[in-house]
Specification:
By secondary structure, the chain is α+β, with helices and mostly antiparallel strands. The chain has two domains: 129 residues, Immunoglobulin-like (Sandwich), CATH 2.60.40; 185 residues, no CATH class. The chain is built from nine helices and ten strands. The chain has a six-stranded mixed β-sheet with strand order 5-6-2-1-8-9, with no helix packed on it. Strand 8 and strand 9 form a beta hairpin. Helix 4 runs parallel beside helix 6 and helix 4 packs across helix 8. The N terminus is likely disordered.
Amino acid sequence: MLRSRFAAFVIAIALASPLAAHELGMVQVDAAFQKDGTYVVELLVDRQHLPPQTPLEQYLRDVANGAHLSFDGKRVAHENVETLPVAGKPTATLLRLHGRTPSSVSRFTFSDDAIIGFFVLSLHNEGDAEKVIEWVEGGKTSAPFALDRAVVPPTRLEVITLYLRLGFTHILPRGLDHVLFVLGIFLLAVKLRPVLWQVSAFTIAHTITLALSIYGIVSLPPRIVEPLIALSIVYVAVENVFTSKLHAWRPLVVFCFGLLHGMGFAGVLHDIGLPRSEFVPALLAFNVGVEGGQLTVILVAFVLIGLPFRNKPWYRQRVVIPCSLAIAATGLWWSIERIFFAT
């Protein structure tokens, strides 16, 4: 009786040992969804746990080909597949699948036809404190995993709408320095058409340097750009005081200052960031938003000041010169502040 119990104990240990070695399955899968709109699915394969006579390289290819990554039930192709060693685990290999999360999806599922038996699947959104852990049978599909909105890229229309708004609000109400520059342009020209020509030159210029700055072709630090922007406001306002005529070189001067202001816009976009998948639409939408903000400033100034007072004999003495002096004083103070008191 004692001998039979001992034999049963030995058999139990023998049966339990491989179970402990394979308690996490032949493959362990971790899926992470990042706030930059990308996903990373890592499959950890330990060759010690593979069936005998199974070539590791062939098995890794089968696992990669058999992996089904689906968003809202639609499978996506792996954009990148990497095979990496695992630090501290000489018998393990990491298979990494990564790419961009599709726009406007809400659920993720995973399956792999090449995995034998059960495997553990962990999933998490970037920023989540805990992971969702699930046991999945090879060849079967996991339960849907809810994706946080922060990790799902917006649609192109959503990107355009967002950056239009960001561009507009960078002028109104946040871009007082740009507003004063545009008002300085407006004050010298009594008619609306010359103002629009100058603003168009300004827009073309800041679009050029904004694009070049974002692509890293040109760059100036904010400690140089911001004081120069303030000084450009001073120049335009002072010119309004000393001349009553719009000279032919004024659009060229405005264009040059627009190149400078574009670097200031680039600093804003560097802080906000541009979506890699919709880089050009976002950049163009931001510029259109900026232009919309500038035209709004001109339209409001034209309705409130230009239309009722521009033909009055005292318009220059009572409106143009006092307003230009106020703008110049503000720009001068900003210049001093940004040069000597900037942190």
